[in-house]
Write a structure and sequence with these properties.
Number of domains: 1
CATH topology: Amino acid/polyamine transporter I
Number of strands: 0
Structural class: mainly alpha
Strand content: under 5%
Bound molecules: phenylalanine
Largest sheet: none
Number of helices: 18
CATH architecture: Up-down Bundle
Shape: globular
Length: about 450
């Protein structure tokens, strides 16, 4: 397969790694992981999650990158060109990926918008100054019930995302993500240093690494598997697309390991920032925080600290920076397909995809406004639009896409061509390739199918 032209390739191997890390490291690690870890009992959940990162995450990330790099094309074309038979049927994995990416971005951008509104509130003194959790919850509820504000920020996030994607691979995604990740790690390290000075730090470490089996249920296993895909941006072609901009010399397996390790470290650090501050504020039941843990509980606890207001602004700036590198990778998937399969120019493709996703995000933003697609009145299968899209895309479609990719590796792709992606770069030679192949084609699909059956209550 011919390599893409230099302007549609990463400028350096580091640039690719940082972009992949930027995609992975987002609201999933910083906002979602701390509260689901707290809800599912801390340590044991973290352990299961780590096992899934190793058995599902790393192999699948390498698989997606290898498919992308080998085909040098966007998801839909990639599965088609590489399949030795039934090309059209295998292409459907790519189509599902595009649909999933579009759906995820449509509501992910709304959540990224929350962090911008909280950043505004914290900078303008709009957050409560009392020590009353209800006052904070009030602010959150008020935001959810303000469709105008939610839509405004959703559009702002989509515009920022489209601006980066429109500038292209090297000059846009790579350059901007490098900056975003540098800022992100700097903020994260400062916050960690700060939380280490709190007396509650040790208790938080014990919580994150100690076993609390009583809160760990069979649901927790599903939650851990789903989150492993979501947090590593797997199952919808983002890593495949980024891999397709990679030259033939760089290694995919080493990148997959590095990105997974860094994303996991960042998720654990997020817990070690959020938990000590929260416990320090006198809140003992971390698991009660739920999705509001970072938006309500953390600011409530942080405001009591010296320069609390500043720290709160820093946290929301961090959330936005992290979210933006992920939204960029989500938008790049449909854009690359429009360029590759429909011959559109990058700018046109970006405008079209971003426009459609902005519109699709509207019902998500209206999900809490009574009378619209909300929990109040219109419910679809008993859920609000936001919950429905979140559940369908993040839990079901990502796992389905992941399973499809495992089967593609097992049955559709030429084994020699695949091996070349690993062996060419001397990434440990054939033995390592065989281990990877076995995990991707046997272990991962079995886990995914078991998780599916369990979710459907088959056993
Ligand atoms: N991995 C991102 C996060 O953790 C979310 C994401 C999912 C991005 C799927 C791209 C694709 O926030």
């Amino acid at each position: 397969m011919e390599e893409r032209k230099a302007s549609s390739q990463w400028g350096s191997r580091l640039g690719f790694m940082v972009a992949a890390l930027g995609s992975a490291l987002g609201l999933g690690s910083l906002w979602r992981f701390p509260y689901i870890a707290a809800e599912n009992g801390g340590g044991l959940f973290v352990l299961v999650y780590l096992v899934f990162i190793v058995l599902l995450g790393v192999p699948l990330m390498a698989a997606e990158m290898a498919i992308g790099r080998s085909s040098q094309s966007s998801p839909v074309r990639a599965y088609g060109t590489l399949a030795t038979r039934h090309k059209r049927a295998w292409q459907s994995i790519g189509v599902l990926g595009v649909i999933t990416g579009v759906l995820i971005l449509s509501y992910y951008s709304v959540v990224a918008g929350w962090s911008l509104d909280y950043l505004r509130l914290s900078l303008t003194g709009g957050l409560p100054t009392s020590n009353d959790i209800d006052a904070f919850k009030g602010v959150f509820d008020e935001l959810l019930k303000s469709p105008g504000t939610l839509l405004f920020w959703h559009v702002v996030v989509m515009l920022c995302t489209a601006w980066v994607v429109g500038r292209g691979v090297k000059g846009g995604i790579e350059q901007v993500t490098e900056w975003l990740m540098a800022i992100l790690f700097l903020i994260l390290i400062v916050l960690l240093g700060y939380s280490m000075t709190l007396p509650t730090f040790i208790d938080s470490v014990k919580f994150v690494f100690g076993f609390h089996a009583e809160d760990f249920t069979s649901e927790s296993v599903l939650e851990a598997a789903g989150h492993a895909f979501f947090t590593l941006s797997l199952g919808m072609g983002a890593m495949l697309t980024y891999g397709s901009y990679l030259d033939k010399r760089s290694g995919v397996l080493s990148t997959a390991v590095l990105v997974s390790v860094m994303d996991t470290v960042a998720s654990l650090v997020a817990c070690l920032v959020v938990f000590p501050v929260t416990l320090n504020g006198g809140i003992t039941e971390l698991k009660e925080g739920g999705p509001g843990l970072v938006f309500n509980t953390l600011p409530l606890s942080a405001q009591a600290l010296p320069f609390g207001g500043v720290w709160i602004s820093v946290v929301f700036a961090l959330l936005f920076v992290a979210a933006l590198a992920s939204t960029v990778s989500l938008l790049e998937v449909p854009v690359s397909v429009l360029i590759d399969s429909f011959g559109l120019a990058r700018r046109k493709a970006t405008a079209l995809a971003a426009g459609v996703i902005t519109l699709l995000g509207t019902p998500a933003a209206l999900s809490w406004t009574p009378g619209f697609f909300s929990a109040g009145m219109t419910k679809i299968f008993g859920k609000s639009w936001f919950d429905l899209v979140d559940n369908l895309s993040a839990n079901w479609f990502l796992s389905l896409g992941a399973l499809g990719t495992c089967l593609f590796i097992a049955f559709a792709m030429d084994r020699k061509q695949l091996a070349a992606e690993f062996v060419r770069n001397h990434e440990g030679g054939r033995k390592l390739f065989q281990l990877w192949f076995l995990t991707t084609t046997v272990v991962s699909p079995i886990i995914i199918v078991v998780v599916f059956l369990k979710t459907l209550n088959v056993f």
